[in-house]
Every structure is written in C-alpha cells, then in structure tokens.
Amino acid sequence: MNKRLSIAALLLAVPLLYLLAWPVPIDPVSWQAPEDRGLVDPFEVNDRLQYARGISIDAFTGPEDATVGVDGNIYATTSSGHVIQVRNRQVREFSNPGGRPLGIETDRDGTLVVANALVGLQRIDRAGNVTTLLRSIGGKPAYDVNNLAIGPDGIIYFSVSSSKFSAAQYTGTYEASLLDIMEHGGNGRVYSFDPESGHVKVLLEGLNYANGVAISSDGRFLVVSETGLYRVSKYWLSGDKKGTSEVLLDNLPGFPDNLKSGANGRFWLGLAAPRNHLLDRLSDKPFLRKVVQRLPAAMRPSAIPSSHVIAFDGDGVVLENLHDLDARFPTLTGVLETRRALYLTTLFGNQLPRIDKRDL
Description:
- This protein is mainly beta.
- The chain has a single domain, classed as 6 Propeller (Neuraminidase).
- Helix content is 12%, strand content 39%.
- It is built from four helices and 26 strands.
C-alpha cells in the first residue's frame, strides 16, 4: 500500500512540478487590463462585410498587407515570402523577397518598400528586383519589423514588434506575438529611417507589441497600434507637440493589427481577434501567466476567429465599423482602400477578400 501511495504521489508531483517550475521564455510583467466593454457603440456587431468575396491567391497564403502600385495593380505580401500582384482578380508572383514580408507601401518613385520580419526593410523595384535597405539596428539584426509608413519626404517609419521574441527564433510571427503579448514586457518600438543617410532613430519605445503604423496625409503625425494594450496612439512629427504622443483610441474590443491611411484623412485598422477573457483576468497575475505558458499550446490563449475592421479619423472618432457575423475571412489584419473597393488583408488563408464600396 505504501509503495502504491508513493508511486501515486510521484505521478502527481511530476506534472505539478512541471507546471510550477519548468523554464519558459516569458518573464511576465504585472499590469491591469481595462475592463472589456465588449462590442458596444461604436463597435456593435453588424453584417456589413457580408458581401465581401475572396480573390483566390492560388498557392500563396496569408496576405498580411497590401498596397496599390503606381500601375494601379494591388501588391500583397504573403507568408510564403512572396509579393504577389493582383490585376483584375488575376494573381501572379511579382517578387520573392524571402523571409516573412509583412507591411508593404508604395514609395514616391514607384518602388515597393517591405517590412520583413526575418530580414528588415527591403525595396522592390518595378521589375521585381529586391535590395535590402536596413538589415540591422544598433548592430543587431532588424528582426520582427512589422508595419511601415512613408512620409512625404521619403522618411520610412516602421515598427519593431518585439526586441525579445522574434519570428526567426520562435517559428513564426504569430507564435512570437503570442509570447510577447503573454509577457507584456514593453519590448516594442517605432523607428524612423532615412534611406538617403541610413540614419535610424527611436521615436517610441516600451510598447506592448508595436504593430500598425500609418501617417497622416499632411505628414504631421503617425498613428501606431499596440496589440498588447488594445490601443492606438498618435505621435506628432511636427508642430508644437513634435516628439510627443497621446492615446487616440483606448480599450479596443479586440487586438489591433495593421494600420493603413485611407481616403479623406481616415485610417483603417484591423482587429485581428476579439479580446481574450482569460488573458485579461491574468493581467495582474504574472506567476499564473507562467503556469498557463507551460500548458499545451491548444490550452493557451490564441486568436478566436472573427472578422472586424474599423476606420477612424485623426481625432480618434470611429467612422466605420464593419463585421462579418460568419467570420468567413477570420483574423483580418487590416484594410487597403481604393476608389471603388476595400481589400481586407488576413493573417491566414489563401484568399484576399474584396468588398465593393457600393455594397457597404
């Protein structure tokens, strides 16, 4: 009997010891998540994305971000490392910068600038040839570069989501983001980069998973999303407030992802997934967050399928709120607005959703 009890105690002690003491890569920081108000005004659930239709991108997946080229065609980054061209719903490979290209913008000279999480900043000319603009920052690889915006003067503003959890080390951008958000260690930054001089400058630091970056049409300010804090901030590039920042949207009902400048001075934001109640409840319990991190991946917080994007102005007034009740295209990262349509970029899947503005 005593031997059986000893064996039973050992069998219980081993998993308990694992849950309490096994090393994990995160060192959680205590914070207080704001109370989740849910999908209330101005974020109420609706079916305004019901008419969105997917453009098949064939063998490519994960069209994370997109831009309109000087030729009027759509160019999108994909998880396979390719940049694709979409022309009248016909898709072809345009360039292969490798790594994991995320953000993409069209520069003044017609070239494309790409934020690549495994490489840094890259430029793609109109023939599809790739050169690297920025491979390192302060002597360290420029990993986890995520989103970018280009100013009227050619300065490139970009986010580094996490200086600690890189996609290169943790098998992918999604996996690295889960670790950074679980830790909440303020590992994110936003930089400016002058491609002419090569000068790099830190604009914002201590961000919790720095993600989307967009610039106002007059170049006076940036808007920046912090996925781990459910908020969007405004950073002044000129004027009396130059070099200062302020919260523009706070306590969002989901995890904010990419930002994109749209028509008439508005900005589009993808809410990649709704808030996670367990993650919020554990915000001020760092020890328990370590315990959760030791659980199997299927039991840890992850993105819940949903389809939700919003648009807002430079004062933080929400102008558009678009949902798909069926979440046919989940994990929407953002929106590319053209004169006639909205293109919905996504983290996963082999379709690029499009909705005609007349159907909104």
